[in-house]
Design brief:
The chain is an alpha+beta fold. It contains two helices and 20 strands. It has an 18-stranded antiparallel β-barrel. A two-stranded antiparallel sheet has the order 6-7. Helix 1 packs across helix 2.
Length: 496
């Protein structure tokens, strides 16, 4: 380095023509170069120091950014928990429409329009509903830090048959459900680890129905409490509940507040369901049914259901299907609406079968058949017998993204011998209903896609003998008799 600097000083001195001794020039230049080099090194040192400070600042900034992101993430988690804790839901169901008969008057209809309807024999709802019915479900859910949750539900419902815009005088507005439930409780373990506790007034969670018949297969409801999802084995869950229903007063005996109590064990084994119910109604045996002309009513009963819930259409096509058989004795002989009939006799027996499902049989064709049948005896009068069978099929043809052509056919056979209960006469015969309903949807995405806006035409006919069953039912009216009856109308149906 010094050799290079000496040569550089000599070259500069010669080039500048400097006078004086050569060694003096060289010495002065070297001093100046040394001072310059010192300043350069000092500048480099300052630059390195500045770079170091900048690097440290960048590290600190990066760390601060990461901390901010973590803090923001935690804030979002808190917000999410808060949102969960404040969770609110609104769900509902509604139908409303106009039903006009072939003479231009109000049409007669309803899924239970036949004599068999008096004992639960539905025929199909499409094109023969003349009511406005709505349900509004309000739910509030809270989720806690340990994963447990609580839910409150309120369900309001109303139904009227008038077509007027103001129906307060006809309204039957009712609180159908109001209950609370809690689940995933941190202190629960073993079989109850994922159990759900509930109390209040409600429909049982595991009820199921045939929607296009408007018939529950089983409907357990009332006021009480219970526990769902008790894990008794790897593939065995069970629900336990106690429901109460009010049978009212027995004025002739001076008894009041007669109640039915239903103790339930509902088991699920994979796709299989086995339900067992015991019913009791203390003092109900002092009730004499049929307005005091009949027999003593039952004060206890039993009910059971075995069902299979398939994930395909009877194993032959995608879709779903269900099959169930029900048996009831005494108060349990009301197979569908458990505990809802106070006039059943102690010896009443009933058996019901339900088979139904839905599938797409072609890219633009949907198919939903149902079979529902029941036989009961000694129901309200000793020796009485009620037999009925309903076959129903709904088919939907997809025309476009927003239009389906819906067809429904229903046939019902009944053989009813009420033994004079409530003045009813023994009858047997058939009922037929055919409906065509062009249906508009926001999306024709599936069989159960709603809302639907329908135009429809329905033709009904039945055996003339059925007109004699009762003077107070639809077919007992002089302007609604066998020989063919047309109904026309428009209807909306929705749920969400």
């Amino acid at each position: 380095m010094m050799m290079f600097k000496s040569r550089l000083a000599l070259a500069v001195a010669l080039g500048l023509g400097m006078s004086g001794p050569l060694w003096a020039a060289q010495s002065g230049i070297e001093a100046r170069l040394a001072a310059l080099e010192a300043r350069v090194q000092a500048a480099e040192a300052r630059a390195e120091a500045a770079e170091s400070r900048a690097s440290q600042a960048e590290v600190k900034a990066s760390a601060a950014s990461e901390q901010a992101q973590v803090a923001n993430s935690r804030s979002q988690q808190v917000d999410e928990k808060t949102a969960g804790a404040q969770g609110f839901e609104f769900h509902g169901y509604a139908r409303s429409g106009l039903l006009v008969n072939g003479n231009g008057n109000g049409g007669r209809g309803g899924p239970y329009i036949t004599p068999a309807g008096s004992v639960g024999g539905a025929v199909g709802r499409l094109g023969n509903e003349d009511d406005t019915y709505m349900e509004a479900n309000l739910l509030k859910t809270q989720t806690f830090d340990d994963g447990s949750w609580a839910r409150y539900k309120l369900m309001l419902a109303d139904g009227v048959e008038t077509s007027n815009d103001w129906t307060a005088s006809d309204s039957s507005l009712n609180t159908r459900q109001v209950f609370a439930e809690i689940g995933n409780l941190a202190s629960f373990d073993g079989a109850f680890k994922h159990a759900v506790l509930w109390a209040g007034k409600r429909f049982d969670r595991d009820n199921f129905d045939i929607h296009w018949l408007d018939s529950d297969v089983v409907f357990l409801a009332g006021t009480g409490g219970g526990v769902y999802d008790v894990q008794l084995a790897d593939s065995w869950k069970a629900n336990f509940s106690l429901y109460g229903r009010d049978y009212g007063d027995i004025s002739a005996s001076g008894l009041s507040d007669i109640e039915s109590h239903i103790l339930t064990m509902n088991n699920r084994f994979g796709n299989w369901q086995w339900m067992v119910n015991g019913l009791s109604a203390n003092d109900n045996e002092q009730r004499i049914n049929d307005g005091g002309k009949g027999s003593e009513a039952a004060d206890k009963g039993a009910h059971t259901l075995v069902a299979y819930h398939a994930d395909s259409f009877f194993g032959i096509n995608p879709g779903f299907s269900k099959a169930a058989i029900l048996y009831g004795h005494g108060l349990g002989a009301e197979l569908k609406g458990l505990g809802s009939d106070s006039e059943l006799l102690p010896d009443a027996d009933a058996v019901r079968i339900a088979v139904f499902g839905a599938t797409d049989i072609a890219p633009r064709w949907r198919f939903a058949p149902a079979l529902l049948a029941e036989q009961s005896q000694d129901r309200y009068a000793k020796g009485d017998e009620y037999q009925w069978l309903t076959l129903n099929t709904r088919v939907a043809q997809v025309v476009s993204q927003n239009l389906e052509l819906v067809y429904e056919a229903a046939w019902q056979y009944m053989d009813l011998d009420p033994k004079g209960y409530q003045g009813r006469q023994a009858v047997s015969g058939n009922f037929t209903k055919l409906t065509f309903a062009p249906t508009f949807k926001a999306q024709t995405a599936g069989f159960f896609e709603r809302p639907e806006l329908r135009l429809f035409a329905t033709w009904m006919d039945w055996s003339s003998e059925l007109d004699n069953y009762a003077s107070d039912d639809a077919m007992g009216q002089s302007n609604f008799t066998a020989g063919g009856e047309w109904n026309f109308g428009v209807q909306m149906e929705t749920w969400f």
